[in-house]
Amino acid sequence: MSAKVLVVDDASFMRLNLKNILESEGFEIIGEGTNGQEAVQLYQAEKPDVVTMDITMPEMDGLAAMEEIMEMDPQAKVIMVSAMGQETYIKKAIMSGAKNFIVKPFKKEKIIETLNKVLAS
Amino acid sequence: MENIDFEKFKKLFLQEADEQLEIMEKAVMQLEENGEEREIIDEFFRMAHSLKGSAGSMGYTPIANLTHEMENVLDKLRNSPGILSDDIIDLLFISLDTLKHLRENVEKGLPETENPEIDHLLQRFGEITSKDSEKKETDIDKKIYLTSQELKNLKEKNQEKNVFFICFELIHQKEMQSMVAFLVLNNLKDEGEIIKTYPPHLDEVEGDLPFFSMLICTEKQTDEISRVIGQSLENEEFKIYTLEDIENGKSGEYFQEVKESFSQRGESRESIRVDIEKVDQLMKLVGELVIDKERLLEISKGIKANSRDNLEAQALLQTIPHVDFIATELHESVMDIRMYPVGSIFKRFPRLVRDISRQTGKDVKLKFSGEDTELDRTILQEVFDPLVHLVRNAIDHGIETPDRREKEGKPSQGLLALNAWQEENNIIIEVKDDGAGVDPEKIKSRALEKGLITAKEGEEMDSESLLELILEPGFSTSETVNDLSGRGVGMDVVRTNIEKLDGEVEITSQPGEGTSIKIVLPLTLAIVQALMVREKGNDYAIPLSAIFETILVNKNNRREVIKTVKSREVVTWREQVIPLIRLGEFFQLGNSHEEGFLIIGGVKGRMVAIMVEGVIGEQEIVVKSLGDFMGKDKLFGEIPGISGATIKGNGEVALILDIQGILKSFKKGGDSVERQSTGC
Fold it and tell me: How many Å apart are CA B487 and CA B478, to the nearest integer?
């Protein structure tokens, strides 16, 4: 069975990019969130196996969303997707339970590898 | 990026880039207009960040690089307030233009070429972001040092548990290597105790970190530790050494025992960055402490009289003055933290002056003095908008066009000076120009025309009072309303804003020679020295800065001190005839008394004598705002003569008198105030 992924990013471009990469590798995209609030709602409704979470987003940022998801489901596997220079956020995310992080711009192999790694843990 | 419709992506990218660029442009303009506003910077950052992400993924490296540098600068603005300069604004504008240009190239499908302009921009950004940024570790020595004693302790631990020395080398991951280290460190923390790391504060390092190492004490075995590390590390090299390996010298150059006790090079920091909210909280607490201190002083007065023989009471009496001293020192120290140089807002003006000069066709040279003068940060923020208005006015209405100036025999370039200095307990910020000046006669006719004064009043007013009419609501001498000074925000708004800060606006002007507008501000708003007075059973505080003298009035001197002129009571004080206000009547609390104290007070040379029943004494008071209750459309309505409240030593509330407000309402409506509400 293919792993279910929730993709969260405010830029539709990024979502499409990730979706394409992941689907080509057999992952199932069960939802796309455009902000933190949507991410939390989608997580609750769809119970994905893994979440890729952008950090800077309107309404609720990725960090807050991740923290809410972790509270809902301490076993949740969230991978932060960040650009250069967001060390502080990544640190906070890791400390609150994020399983790994990906730096934008990313290579396809890196994403797949990270996702598999996190799913296997 | 195989399997994807590149054109579809490109279209989406361009669409989003347009939106992002538009929002960023708006943000720079807002930053230029309003200065550093956290929300705008955040929004700006978010946009630059999104654009960087998508550009990077599409392989549009110049856009990604440029937005990355913009992000760095914005982040710096966020982290160190007060550094926004015209240079930065300029740079952001140019960068946006360049980004637009790059975006066009993407749309047209033009290949990326070497662009010296971008390199230049990147370099300028680099200069700004690296300026006074923390010193980078220059230490190329990658060893973990342990003293002989520490090593001995480790060996003891190793009896029951395992001590591992793990070295990491990141070869594939190039970005945010320190975060990889952080992730590994965080995961290993769950497995055991991290004893030492290289670099020493591994969890605080940011940026490149191709090599790092740690010493861990754990119950787990090598393979398990290896598995945990593998979870967060992709295809990167790491080696795990045991304590035996270390002792046998297998861990090589990365580990060293030092014979004598080794003290780590301590970082000596000259300054730390503190959240302003924490300082405000501290200030609030100090305010409370000052109230309690005053209460203690009050209580100690009672004890003094009653208990000369009580040793404990005597000890208490000896302690209280020390508490008084400490509280005052503490207050001053906290105030000092809140102080910010005026220069931090001055430096926003050159661009503004340049723009306004250009728009109005004037040639203006801007000069500063006293940039180091410090002012409470809160006041400084509030004073920026009024200053902008004054500067606009000075260029728009004050300084003449170059032609006109030459005809008048002045240098064609006008001079605009922003000066700041301290005078006793006040900070003065002056906007001074060498322009046309203000003609009091013109003001008089304008004021008559607008119905601000009657003809009779006009006759009686001296040129100083006439100049002050500029500050009245509804007054504007500009014949044409333009988008510079005539935006419906007049000088009255300047005055209102400054008075909210307990400050004053003073105008002096010589026709043909120029105008000087001074904003006189208190050093701080929070705690002031005041004279406590009593009237009809209520206590009032009068800021000492507004008081000149206190005169005792009794039946012996009453007739000499208080005279009646034109059915109004006046007092002669140092050969000046000044109006008398009976506080009880002013607040409509009841008929007045014939004996008591006269408080001779005044602001800006306008004097008033306030008659009160009693004087309690000098006291440090903590000013509490009544802003939520007083004023137009608020619970108590507008109450002239009250500027706030304070809590007395005994815990009761006393109102703070506003001499300026009393003078104003006195001038307008005789010696009693029409109350809009019966509250308070």
Answer: 11
